[in-house]
Amino acid sequence: MELILASQSPRRKEILSLLDIPFTIAVSDADETVDDSLPPYFIAESLSLKKAVAVAKNIDTEAIVIGADTIVVSEGKILGKPKDDADAFSMLSSLSGRTHSVISGVTVLDTKCAKSESFYVETKVTFYPLTDKEIADYIATGECRDKAGAYGIQGRGGKFVEKISGDYFNVVGLPLSKLYQVLKKEFNIF
Amino acid sequence: MELILASQSPRRKEILSLLDIPFTIAVSDADETVDDSLPPYFIAESLSLKKAVAVAKNIDTEAIVIGADTIVVSEGKILGKPKDDADAFSMLSSLSGRTHSVISGVTVLDTKCAKSESFYVETKVTFYPLTDKEIADYIATGECRDKAGAYGIQGRGGKFVEKISGDYFNVVGLPLSKLYQVLKKEFNIF
Question: How far apart are CA A108 and CA A23, in angstroms?
Answer without folding.
Answer: 13
